[in-house]
Amino acid sequence: MEEIIQYIEENKLNSKDRYRHIVYKRFYLSNLLRNNGLTLQEIGKIFKKDHATILYGIKIHKDFMSINDSIYIEHTEQERLLFENLDHNYNLVDDIMGCYSIPVLKKIKFRLRNNLYKELNLESHI
Asked: What CA–CA distance (Å, rounded) separates 105 from 111?
């Protein structure tokens, strides 16, 4: 939970910006925080929004996910990779052996940069 809040602050997702990519990230992270037990008011405080705005964002997130909206999924990919499986242990060898396209290679690169491969400690190399 702390990582999510830190990410929001570092990436200025609690700003007043209404650019699509920022709004979509807010929707996704609002839903994630709600699923982790925060109230609408607590989430609103993090994003500097009222509880109704947070509720609306969670509804839109669910609507987009129910239809697999490709634009929404693309704009929230980084957050999904970081937070969907916080305790997930990715395996670099399996990922490389299963790599079949440039987008999958980009995911591997992202995981390496964010030290998501638990068997490696790459902080000193990147």
From this structure: 10
